[in-house]
Amino acid sequence: MKRMFFDFSALRRAFKIKNFALYTAGNTLSLIGMWVQRLAVGWLMWELTESGAWLGAIAMAEFLPIVILTPLGGVVADRFDRLRISIIAQNFACAQASALWLLTLANGITPEILVALMMIGGVTNAMNQAARVTLVVNMVPREIMSTAIAINSIIFNVARIIGPAVAGALIYFTDIAWAFLVNAVSYAALIAALYCIRMPRVKDAIPPTGPYIRDLIEGALFTFSHTGVAAIIALTAVNSLFARPLIDLLPGFTGEVFNSGPEGLAILTSSMGVGAICASIWLAQRGRLSGLTGIVCFGVMLNGAAVALFALSTSLWTGAILLAVSGFTQACTGTGTQTLLQSSVEDRLRGRVMSVWLVIGRGGPALGALVMGSLAEITGFGAPLFVGALIVFFTAILVLPRRERLAKALEPADATVRYRFRPGI
After folding, report:
1. For residues 126 and 133, what is the distance between their CA atoms, to the nearest angstrom?
2. Which domain holds residue 181?
3. pLDDT tens digits, residue range 291-319?
4. Is residue 118 one of the residues assigned to a domain?
5. 287 CB-near residues (< 8 Å, 6+ apart)
6. In a domain, 422, yes or no
7. CB-CB neighbours of 290 under 10 Å
8. Residue 274: which of 170, 162, 186 has the closest Cα?
9. Which of 18, 103, 273, 391 has its Cβ near the most Cβ atoms within 10 Å?
């Protein structure tokens, strides 16, 4: 039978799994709250300082814990119960959002305190990220892993649209402090969902033993010696350092380049979300591993081109259209890369390998934002981003001819299902 262009059977199968459905419902609300806070933090810092360097400092506050602690979080995710790790982390994140709310409401917030609180959030995320990204794939059979990851990308980007809109309304009609309260409250749904989840057994989930440093070295050696994994992580590094800092610099672009307020920032952020949702829906219904390497390579190239054109734009709506293209390509590369990496490793190594990807994928934009934000004090926001985007574009051009060789290492045709599911799970 000829395959339909849109086939949503894989999505229906994923949502029939109770654990995945529970997690997705709770995570949706939590991610909306996260995007509410993310826009509010950026805008609050811009109001306090009107400085690109301070915007970069906010991003750097999350970058440092990611670099230092995420590899340790990967070892922890491979040794201990990933579900329990996630529950503890969500409670800490709720406390951090509550502190932001109370301090801002009492007019006690300063740029230094804001950076310190974001660093606390960075520590929490660093210790939880590896457990979180590997938890989802342990909920579903391997053959619909790509679909599950794409669904998570969909809800992330739906939240990217709803969250900034909610934040913009809260800032405009009430006080920015209430945006932080919304985030604190949103964690309750996810925490409740996590308590209801009962994880299936994983065949190759043999927790490592011995010194932590040995486990770190084992994970690093596998990551950088595997032809496909090393190449895809290198491509992620270039994209993260030189193109994705745009997201953290959007408040500065909105205020300085487009002469707009929080409503303009919400439009730009939401535009990226629209593009990303379209890409995620396409990948979710696509539901297969073959061809993902090429999608990632072309996605990075197109993202470089879109970001370069955005850096030259002076119109808010032109920028919004370009960000929709960028959002589409970033969802393709993010979802595709994560699927390729998780399909290439055994569960006992998955946390450590994904922690390397997380360090680069989350820390790279923060480092890039700090450098570009500092340069923006001298040159304006457009020039540093334009140069970075060109680096991304030409790097992808160099990688494209090698995509078939990489696909052989990253898209195993004989991938076996590694999960045993009990009825009703």
Report:
1. 12
2. 10-198+209-411
3. 888 999 999 999 999 999 999 998 999 99
4. yes
5. 7, 9, 10, 11, 144, 146, 147
6. no
7. 10
8. 162
9. 273
Chain centroid offset of residue 229 CA? 18
DSSP bridge pairs for 201: 420
**Tokens read off for 327:** 């959002």
3-class SS shares of the chain: helix, strand, coil, % to 5: 80, 0, 15
Residue 3's CB is within 10 A of a number of other CB atoms, namely 7
Number of domains in the chain: 1
| Distance in Å from the first CA to the final CA of the chain | 31
Share of the chain above pLDDT 70, in %: 91
pLDDT in tens, 222-240: 887 787 888 888 898 999 9
pTM: 0.70
**Residue 3 maps to a domain:** no
164 found inside a domain: yes
Please give the angle made by the CA atoms of 392, 394 and 396, to the nearest 5 degrees.
Answer: 70
Q: Residue 398 belongs to a domain with what CATH number? A: 1.20.1250.20
**By three-state DSSP, how is residue 31 classified?**
helix
pLDDT for the residue 99: 92
Q: Which residues face 419 on adjacent strands? A: 202
136 vs 200, higher pLDDT: 136
Six-digit token pair at 309? 């054109």
